[in-house]
Predict the structure.
Amino acid sequence: MNVHHLNCGVLHAPPSPQASCHCLLLEHNGRLALVDTGIGLQDIARPEERIGRQAIDGAGFQFHEALTAVRQIEGLGFQAADVTDIVLTHGDPDHAGGLADFPAAAVHVSDEELARIKAGHWRYSAAQFAHQPQWVVHPKSDVRWFGLEGRPLSLSLKVDAVLVPLAGHTLGHCGVAVRVGDHWLLHVGDAYYLSAELSTDEHPVSQLASMRADDDDERRASLGELRRLARDHATEVAMFGYHDFTEFPSGWLPVAW
Ligand SMILES: [Zn+2]
């Protein structure tokens, strides 16, 4: 399996640092799976309708077609239709915007998250889901993954992947773990914004994280679990978040915009 690290968008709301949209593209036997989708073509075409002026200004959305997942996938020699599965950490507009560029893909999400999306909770953009994604819902599971709940994902690609509930940022927010050889990649989504949060609560971005959390106690508990994993399982689990530009592995310099 090939793992590609794609930056599928940029957000910049000073004084917060510039934030990435770090998506994973898994490639196996010509089939592709995406973890999160970044900012999509339709967001760029109709930003106010899809995301809204308040969120655009508040989060500092930037719109660059070259960064969309679909354009980067085409740049790698594939087509949108090669993406058979998408796994969403949660439904926020900076994560779900690219869904509509892959209408044929199965979209995996926790059932808690889908319930909130379908209920029309204010933080989500109904327009980003108007194309009626082919949802695959993942309910609670008894499977454990390094001491956390793990919801096994059956993707078209023969890949070992697990949805790992890390609630708080949203009520159904999950990380996504993918086995690569003898270790795991853990995409933590927005369970932290910056990896600095693994070692301190005093970082300025922690206040933003509290503000944006649907349940801040749960968010802190999830962050505590990530700190435990980082401490006890660093050799088995390599974690990274969605918004920290410093976490792209060397050799995966984001596309210039
Ligand atoms: Zn986000």
